[in-house]
Write a structure and sequence with these properties.
homodimer, alpha/beta, Rossmann fold, 3 domains, three-stranded antiparallel sheet, DNA-binding
Chain lengths: 214, 214
DNA sequence: ACGTGTGAACACATTCACAGCT
DNA sequence: AGCTGTGAATGTGTTCACACGT
């Protein structure tokens, strides 16, 4: 379930504060969901709570980590070392738990050989070799839109079945390959959509109020 | 609906190729969805298609843009000019349609005054003033986790009701405020989850095959 | 004939409400 | 007494399949 990472983060925050046990009510509010949903989500992993008491934080952290596959390390390759690629490479959050940035690749010869986040940027021609030698299982695409599909295809053919795509294109991949997409301008457009609906509503209300006053 | 931006992008690509009319089947495959879903989504905006023919690309682009509120310009403020904030500031995709980066803010005095993407970074103390003077309606938070809630609260109190949050925390905001969250390590964790399920399945299959072979 | 628009069937997620354990 | 785990009810989103307009 897509909410497990959020629960995990909330639990780790509790753990850092030395809290040993937590009720579904508390954890749910920390994660921004309702308590029935949280209990149903957790019950999918098994019965890890104690009735009348709640959940043991440490045990639950371990169970969720295991369910998410964070007890093993995943090697990640980033292709496209522009502003965003650099930002990801330097983002400390990955290394902390379960993920290791194994390689940075770029098509631009001027980029190749530069050092980013204490890794040498290598030429994209080495993609297949790097995937094999580093055991890369997750590919991150931060290239321009035009290059993304080609990179995705190469990842897939090299055996990478998990792709995180930041390029604003719909990737075509075979069944069994998992693509997640992060699209910044789509997020903004969705915000604009809601903002406009709010504004429209205000307008209608104002108009209605005006009519009532006349 | 959250898929309209994807349709819009696909339509604009068709438009660039000089294509005037498109069927739900074609557009759906370009957007990576099924055609019934696309028709139902579009029917929510009104009856903009012609039976037996399809949709007129240009007209549909206009209707979706209008629905999304992209016919007006939205001023965006980015708080937290680290690697990610800089990447967003430099990302050209925003300016193209409907969004204008109106201000960059940071709490670090060493950062203030620097020029990023031809904008001067200003101190966070100016948040309220900038929101008012630039008419900011969308706030982007790329600060460390610890600072995010404070920034969000200041945005809300300044009248910003749309927030795009990159910090790995659940923001607490009043009803009526729209928060969207982009969390890179959550995306990776979800990929790891599926990757592990694949691996487990392979393992079981391998084991089963092994058993069958013995 | 072709492709949209849409009721009806379906699948899935959320919420309610409470039995049952501690 | 308190809180989990879960059947039942509800809501939401997806898919099917076809009547209807062009």
């Amino acid at each position: 379930m897509a909410r497990l990472p959020i629960y995990l983060r909330a639990l780790q925050a509790l753990q850092d504060r030395g809290i040993l046990t937590v009720s579904s009510e508390h954890l749910a509010s920390a994660a921004g969901v309702n308590s029935a949903k949280l209990r149903k989500d957790l019950s999918h992993l098994g019965s890890y709570g104690t009735r009348g008491v709640g959940y043991e934080v440490e045990y639950l952290v371990y169970q969720i980590s295991r369910e998410l596959g964070l007890t093993q390390d995943w090697a990640v390759a980033i292709v496209g070392i522009g502003n965003l690629g650099r930002a990801l490479a330097n983002y400390g959050g990955f290394g902390t738990r379960g993920f290791r940035i194994a390689a940075l690749l770029d098509a631009d010869p001027a980029m190749v050989g530069q050092s980013v986040a204490s890794l040498d940027v290598r030429h994209i021609d080495n993609l297949e070799a790097v995937v094999r030698s580093e055991g890369v299982s997750i590919g991150v695409i931060t290239t321009p839109a035009a290059a993304a599909q080609g990179v995705a295809t190469r990842f897939v053919e090299a055996g990478v079945a998990s792709i995180l795509n930041f390029a604003p294109v719909v990737l075509n991949v075979p069944d069994g390959v998992d693509v997640r997409k992060v699209d910044l301008s789509i997020e903004l457009q969705i915000l604009a959509f809601h903002a406009q609906r709010r504004a429209d509503g205000d307008g209608r209300n104002a108009e209605r109020a005006g009519l009532e006053l006349t």
